[in-house]
Amino acid sequence: MPLVENGKIVEDRYVRLGADDAIPDRVPVIVPAARFLAEADALIGRDGSLGVLWPNNKRIAELKPWLGHLALIALEFPKFRDGRAYSQARLLREQYGFRGTLRATGDVLRDQFSFLVRAGFDSFDVKKPADAAAFAKSVSRYSVHYQGSADGSLPALRRRLQNAATPRTGEKTGETA
Amino acid sequence: MTSPLEQKKIKVTGPVVVTANRTGDGAVIYRHAEGWTTNLAHAAVVSDGAGAQALMAHAAADDLGAVGAYIAPVKLLPGGHVRPGNLRELIRLGGPTIRLPVAAAKVLERDPA
Amino acid sequence: MYVYDAFDRTLVNERVAEFRDQVARRLSGELSEEEFKPLRLMNGVYLQLHAYMLRTAIPYGTLSSEQMRMLAHVARKYDRGYGHFTTRQNIQYHWIKLAELPDAMADLASVGMHGMQTSGNCVRNITTDQWAGVAPDEIDDPRIFAELIRQHVTLHPEFSFMPRKFKIAVGTSAHDRAALRIHDLALQMHRNAAGELGFEVMVGGGLGRTPFLAQTIKPFLDRRDVLSYVEAVLRTYNQFGRRDNIYKARIKILVHELGAEAFAREVDAEWAAIKDGALAIDDDVVADIAGRFIYPRYEKLPDNPDAFAKARKADRAFDAWVGNSVANHKVPGYAIVTLSLKPEGETPGDATAVQMDAIADLADRYSFSEIRVGHEQNLVLPHVAQHDLPELWRALEPLGLALPNVNLVSDIISCPGLDYCSLANARSIPIAQEISRRFANLDLQRDLGRLHINISGCINACGHHHVGHIGILGVEKNGEEFYQITLGGKADEHAALGDLIGPAVPYAQVADVVEDIASAYLELRSRPDELFIDTLKRTGIEPFRERVYATR
Fold first, then answer.
1. What does each C-alpha distance from C161 to A58, A80, C35, C234, C242 come to in angstroms?
2. Cβ neighbours of A87 in C, within 8 Å
């Protein structure tokens, strides 16, 4: 499952731990949610980046107290049609102010990249190698969006008003019908 | 005519074929030994669970050529003619049972009231 | 009507390009059907019995004549010369080839049309009243808000993979012509005591296996807060709607299982966090959207001009049509004209390419180039000058679009049913055709008065049978087509679900049953102008049940 970050396939620095695996020192780890909650203090106090794998049927608000200690949160798409993690991602980014790495895992396919990026994900555990290779192309498929993004870009409603107020030359307006 | 999309357990109690829709244009097709045909007369007809299972396995494997394969009943008439086994399959093979609007319009054009 | 700007056009064009790529990857085998299916559904591409079906969105049922001509073109070039207008104000083509779809979509995109989100587990076409913007009893044009919401939910990154489909309707008239209460989310505009504009928010309506009427969770939502509140509802649904069972996945089940109050509390908690953010709608935003709606430059005309009044007196047929199909307009001297797509013995809601082109021409000539689609599967010319009505009628008649049966017993709402649809258990169109033949006599229809028949070919209820005065649901028993009959459903502001009158009846008897029900009504009514639905309310269902099952 190739990992894509910053538009490229990269090595995964993180080690995925199970419920009972020993925790290595000074190595970035991703720990399942139940274990994290049970061992939070020990994990936070440890030397090494900490990530948590959070299921999509558990309220993401439960992670709020620890966000400052987490370098990475991995959210799940058991099937790509199960879109609960999109809401979890937006809550993390836009309401709880999470600034660490937000990773999409599971059934992560090419045709969801644009949605995932706009929901706030910046790390993608991609199911198919061919999709991973096509990441940059897929993500730039749409040059306009009606909604604002987690990256702070404005909704089309606001951009129009901006354009109307201060006409800009060279603005990309797309093809005319 | 309960939609086959709701079939959970397939029981073969009579002659059946495997049918699907052609990927490119959605046309109704039937499975035979080498592939697919739009002609029901050339379809492979089986009457037992094992035979149906085998046909389905090959059909389902052809994800490129066919969409939504399922097992459908047929009637075997004297002389070996194969006919659809229920109203749904009759409609799939023969088209809607109603006159399409363009046909009606053509009649109006020919014989304006 | 709304005019696309560069943003809108770019989005639609990029969508076509994306879909073209997805189709290519499907046909090359790179994408499996399992992976492709949700993608094609999000463009309105279904697989039906005989072929693919394309559902093209007609946002809030408003169409320009240019767009109608393109619909005719698509029907001719890619289909079999006709299209079907649906109960959600969309159009469907039943004979589409997948390989040709990208080209068809490119043609549609050239006039700002698409199939985006007409299927799939996302927000579907946002519907309104087909008299929006011209009805005398409306507070404001609902389409402005429908367009605001439409843009917000189109290709929304968070709400494109919800538990199930999500249908929104917006109303601004006291009389509900948009069937608000059967929607997942409905917004009904009100003015509060201070005269401010806001919306009553209702959630959890929906038909199908477990029909529910929507419940009010917020009596008055300030106009400013519409988008943030809708977002909060969708976020709550996306997170907590059931995903374990496709038949329990709609928001109506979540609202029912939590209770409306608990559901409202969840929504409010989420809403509190976002209501003052980027989604707050200020007057600038509303004005911007409203500014891109083109309204006609109406002339100053008198009501009931002489030539029109004379024509009514001189021609009984014209007068009958005016009495039936022409409604008052909020601007003096104008009228709202309904074009019946329910000719005797034909498929309800279908129109040929020839008819579509002719309607486009008539819209150009008589309706400021604008056409509407109603959920009852008829079309509307919304801006006709009264003095043009005689000429318009003379043009509509030979096209088969002037049958004065609107809201009468032969103005049947019907899904395509087993003749087309892979979900169906029974046929619906031939049932509608036979009923319309039995009641062809217009005097009889006028005597019966307003009487809504809704037919669905399966429990998915696309024909809205639950809310028909007479509802007909096709089921399968031992390989035969049978039909359950319900009475007393209503789709308007007094929304109600119909009651079953008894055991299902076979295909051949359905039209007889409807005749029996009509006869019983004629005998039971207290006066000629007591409507069927009111007689039924007064007498209860028992006398009708007795009549129908006396000999069955």
1. 17, 8, 13, 11, 13
2. 158, 235, 238-239
